[in-house]
Design brief:
Mean pLDDT: 87
Largest sheet: 3 strands, antiparallel
Shape: globular
Structural class: mainly alpha
Number of strands: 6
Helix content: 40-55%
Distance between the termini: 26 Å
Low-confidence stretches: none
Length: 382
């Protein structure tokens, strides 16, 4: 951050992008070196953390931390383009009428945040490489006490080596390597996010999760369903109340299956907890809505889900349910695209079971399969 501040001081507000490109050469060289250092520290830490647990697993080869100093950000774009974003934000702010001084300060904050985020992402990526090299090793996600709800429901979970470490801007999540889920449980690292929620006071719960979401959880809603509902939310009119969400309404979505199997109804959009509480209904009706929309789960629901999903399969999907541990996430994506394409060619609609197979269905399946085949199932490629 000190280097970022020093470099940003050389930016001329009258010609932001040109002056930034003229003054950032030393910063980009330093940053590439820091990436290699962060990668090296992360790889060293992974071996030492395993050793502290009484384990040493010989890696399949020795990872090279200097590979992270090749001039690319963790997202795969070159550093020059990556660090051009603060200049773009500054110019956009000035164009939108922001005072020049304030716009420059905003650009400086963006640069600092992007630099720190990229180093943290590099560290997580290098830790992932070290974990993947060691047979039978996965990781447990750990978070700071003041993390956001999205991170809170992931904290304390065990992941296999090929399950991605999801991060977002300002995320401070870390991963601890561990030899198997049983070992992680024995160490006491696998935790329940409800334990953390229950340990908070009501005021703190409302502050972190929002009043409506926190109240839904206090009323018995599943914390995962409540937090994940924020994906796919849609506000009503010009108001700020996000009344509905598409989360959980896909073919295998829990909310859709609950509505179908428990209530015998079809579902296209799902009320959010905020939308439910905005109706100001009596408590009994509110609880019933939370149940109908899949926030308060039916008894033994988690145990019933595999059989319900299996009844909707268009083809053998056991590999997708995690029963073939040797497949990586990329291989699963590619296999799923292939099966969708084959189903379409066989006259079965892979997107809407029972619906007719119009010409656009195999065309869509072919295009999807081609894209995943070109990248070998990888989401990000350089």
């Amino acid at each position: 951050m000190r280097a970022a501040d020093k470099t940003w001081k050389g930016v001329d507000p009258r010609r932001v992008r040109d002056s930034w490109h003229q003054s950032n050469a030393d910063f980009l060289m330093l940053f590439a070196a820091l990436q290699a250092r962060a990668a090296s520290d992360a790889m060293d830490a992974s071996t030492l953390m395993l050793a502290e647990q009484g384990d040493y697993i010989t890696p399949d080869g020795i990872a090279n931390p200097n590979a992270y100093s090749a001039g690319y950000a963790p997202s795969g774009i070159d550093l020059d383009s990556y660090f051009d974003i603060p200049a773009t934000h500054t110019l956009t702010a000035i164009k939108n009428g922001m005072d020049t001084y304030d716009a420059m300060q905003a650009g400086r904050r963006t640069l600092r945040q992007m630099a720190m985020q990229a180093l943290e992402d590099t560290s997580v990526s290098a830790m992932g490489v070290s974990i993947t090299q060691r047979a039978g090793v996965g990781y447990v996600r750990v978070e700071s006490p003041d993390c956001c709800p999205r991170c809170a429901i992931l904290a304390g979970k065990y992941y296999r080596h090929n399950q991605g470490f999801l991060r977002h801007p300002k995320c401070h999540g870390r991963n601890i390597p561990c030899k198997g889920k049983d070992k992680a449980a024995k160490q006491g690292w696998i935790t329940n996010p409800m334990d953390r929620f229950n340990a908070m006071g009501e005021e703190e719960q409302d502050r972190i999760f929002g009043h409506a979401d926190a109240q839904a959880i206090r009323d018995g809603a599943d914390i995962y369903q409540v937090v994940n509902a924020h994906r796919g939310m849609r506000p009503v009119g010009r108001g700020r109340i996000s009344m509905t969400t598409s989360e959980g309404t896909s073919r295998y979505g829990w909310s859709r299956m609950i509505r179908q199997y428990q209530y015998g109804q079809q579902q296209h959009r799902r009320l959010t907890p905020e939308g439910i509480y905005s109706f100001n209904l009596p408590r009994e009706q509110t609880i019933e809505l939370l149940k109908r929309e899949g926030y308060i789960l039916p008894d033994n629901w988690r145990g019933r889900v595999p059989d319900l999903r299996r009844s909707q399969w268009l083809h053998n999907n056991e590999w997708r349910q995690g029963r073939h541990e040797e497949l990586t996430a990329a291989q699963k994506r590619l296999e799923n695209a292939r099966l969708r394409y084959e189903a379409a060619l066989d006259g079965r609609n892979p997107y809407q079971p029972g619906a007719p197979v119009t010409p656009d269905v195999p065309a869509k399946a072919e295009n999807s399969y081609r894209r995943w085949l070109a990248s070998n199932g990888e989401v990000h490629t350089k």
